[in-house]
Fold these 3 entries.
Entry 1:
Amino acid sequence: MGALPDLSVDIGGLRIKNPVLAASGTFGYGDELTCFYDPSLLGAIIVKGLSLRPMPGNPPPRIVETPCGLLNAIGLANIGIEAFVEEKLPSLATIRTPVITNIYGHTVEEYAEMAERIEKVDGIAAIEINISCPNVEEGGMAFGTDPDTAAMVTDEVVRNTTKPVIVKLTPNVTDITIIARAVESAGAQAISVTNTLLGMAVDVATRRPKLANVIGGLSGPAIKPIALYLVHKVVEAVKIPVIGLGGIMDYEDALEFLIVGARAIQVGTANLINPNTAMEIITGLTDFCIRENISNINQIIGVLETNGEDHEKKGDRKN
Ligand SMILES: Cc1cc2nc3c(=O)[nH]c(=O)nc-3n(C[C@H](O)[C@H](O)[C@H](O)COP(=O)(O)O)c2cc1C
């Protein structure tokens, strides 16, 4: 048997052994799926979104299943940065893969304070900024829908850390490329695309929304074509690496994102359905590379063939 393909990639200065990451909010603080596999095998782990102070999140019900998807309105419930550093980070440090903290603030200053706090801590490889959560009133998505504010948050975090900064964008905008360019100019080293799409569901018997928060964020296979399209758009708009996510369930989904140009991918909702998904994707990518005689995964990144046919650029109608 020949040598195994090299799956390692570089995301904004962070070298990871394979392009498969656990997405924030679906992998707890890195300790939830350890009974299924060794998390050291993942490219990186992105922990649940953290804030300066602990947050209870929204009242229940905060999760609803929809056809091919999941609506959540967790509201960024988390233990806060201090408890994370004291209680969770020591055991995470034993995992031999980079740990990325996903952070959010209620104000621009809070994002800066979070970055400053994380800078003092060993064992955190990079910061993913969430400016895209649809489920909190202040902060979250409000920062991700305006290019100036998105740039301001990015700039504050970048100025307060030496760690790579990844900005996670919301799909709930008219033109995602404007926000992508704004955060790139503000110093982001990578961009994650995408967070959840706004949605809702109604209980016809009670005439009430199924989520106590009324609206939530849609994730899972239902959003994959939209996420893929947004990754395609962002890859064309910026030079920094793009991390793709949204509805990835198996290695072929992952390959679609890599082919359109994502440097790495994240597994989110799939973790809640089949906890072994990320491992199956790593195996699937390895086998695919062997079958296709690909010695390095980078050979498949951004190889989308369109023959110059981009109907959006041409202004063609799609129906
Ligand atoms: C239950 C749940 C909690 C989430 N919590 C966070 C979070 O704390 N921070 C964040 O940036 N994204 C969060 N997300 C969004 C996911 O990381 C991901 O961007 C989104 O679900 C789309 O990917 P998927 O379809 O693979 O799940 C959460 C998603 C779910 C389903």
Entry 2:
Amino acid sequence: MTVRVVDAVTINDAHCHFFSSNFFSALARQRLATTGATTAQAEASAADVCRELQWDDPRTADALSDRWVAELDEHRVTRAALIASVPTDEVSVAEAVAHHPSRFVGFFMVDPAASDALDRTRRAVEELRLRTICLFPAMQHVPLGDDRTVSIVELAASRPGTAVFVHCGVLSVGVRAKLGLPSRFDMRLGNPLDVSRLALAFPTVPFIIPHFGAGVFREALMAADICPNIHLDTSSSNGWIKYMPGLTLEAVFKAALAVAGPSRLLFGTDSSFFPRGWQNGVYDTQQQIVDRLGISTADAALIFGGNFDRLFP
Ligand SMILES: [Zn+2]
């Protein structure tokens, strides 16, 4: 029996979504505001929304965090980033982290256009001890060079150990489509070159660009090449490679390793709802690629867990 390189390494997942009750309630409220759903539909509880989606009701943040721990244990995953996936849901992830501090690192979505964005961000990093601010400029329609975004990054810089995650490239949120919510995303706003301007201005802040740039791969590589504080996460099925004819995920890994090196790639799955749970298939695909590329055990250990532990000790 051959032992694969990655069988021996610690696995940390740098990209999981924490779909709490607040998350589903927020989507139900958005549906009322944007699609003319009946009040009854929009006022559906989180449990009703889950029933509609045929997903499991997350119940309390504590219960959901316990379920995540069981799921990580089953798959031999040591730690995971949990992303509060609507602005205003920081508290749910903070509860999960407080419940299992050795297993979770708290990430949270901020909408820089919200009037209380800066106050919420300050509270999330200072009081709730969340570690990564997540920006989705295409969804939030706030350019990365906008003063409102810059003040949020300034706050991260004032709080060592805080990272900034910026979703670039193609953005599709499956649950929004399933619930009939419009997704008027402006993809022009998610450009890794704009992340590089921020990363150069704030060299002590670690930046994370998920999914290798999600279709803006060349620019993600350029940004990572120039900015040593830019990291790329490997998460999801990386379906964006279809936009570049002939490109394979193996070639993506090879190029990313050549440019950013093994210490700036963060393994992730983009897991989110139950009962689907942790996306073992993403892991299997990526570990096979790492094996085929003949990456050393030390480098594989960095990608699958070590870099995450260094950023979030
Ligand atoms: Zn995601």
Entry 3:
Amino acid sequence: MSSTSGDGTPGRVLVVEDDPVTGRFLTYLLGERGGFDVTHTTDPAAALQDVRSQTWDLVVTDVEMPGMTGIQLLRQLRQISPHLPVAVLTAHASFDNVVSALRDDADEFLEKTVPPDQLLATVGSLVAKGRAARLANRQAVLAIGAHPDDVEIGAAGALLAHRGMGHEVSILTLSRGARGGPESTRAGESEMAALAIGADLYLEDLHDTSIAEGDPTIATISRVVQIVRPTVIYTHSLHDLHQDHRNTHQAAMVAGREVGRVYCFQSPSATVDFRPNHFVTIDDQLEGKLLAIGSFASQTQVRDYLKPDLIESTARYWSRFSDGLYAEAFEVIRDAVTASLSDAPHPPAAVGPTEGAS
Ligand SMILES: [Zn+2]
């Protein structure tokens, strides 16, 4: 049997089992013999955290554990990751009351006494199912900025939150910011910042301070859209004093017209007309955001808007519209609900926070 599928990486299996002996056995069987990438945890609460923050193809869980029953775990897993297959380990599948209670929720029941080869085969098909569902529900984020550091200032927290949910994240920076410092330095800084976020970087070479609203900007963004196939776009707001930012916004609206979710971030040059209606809590991402912005060391000395206390206090301010201590603010151009209306040039913006990286 094969433990890999699709992109060739081993299927990722999370085993939740409070009995260490059974846990070790499953880790050995699925990992060493099956070739899966297996993580074993004895704590259901830790398992939920793992599912929130990483990408998995299958969860294998025991029924009875201290702190949380298999039923409770299963219900919560369904809320966090509806398409992730969950297999429940049982002693006797057919005679267990718990099993009948779980019948509707679990994808499969694995009897602990089943022969190893049979267990591996079942896990293999569940992993394939999980992988297929994950790819079908693939989320790819493209953040588009005119200059190095624009995307990081406006949306690094949200991008880190997307990464935490296993989404692909790419950054497109249209110019190398030659007017703001040595070009080679800022290119290296952009790469470090993208690395800190876990994003792929597309660093283009349009002329700083004269980025056009038409071509070549539209063609440049379109090319990256073709490669990344984003489901979510973040870019500049139209409500911005800097012409490069406004033109990047306009070009992104054209190049990204097929994309279902489009949000505009705040730049230091945003005007008072920047009126966000989508807020992403970034309490867990603030540190990472500051780290990413810290990559632009050649600028932090000369640009006040890159100072950590300003980044932090801006996020602190926007948290009054979110449920945490720090937030990033976005104007909604389109969200998934209106995706089918995306042929319209300027659909009405949604009101209020929408489902997203919060
Ligand atoms: Zn800029």
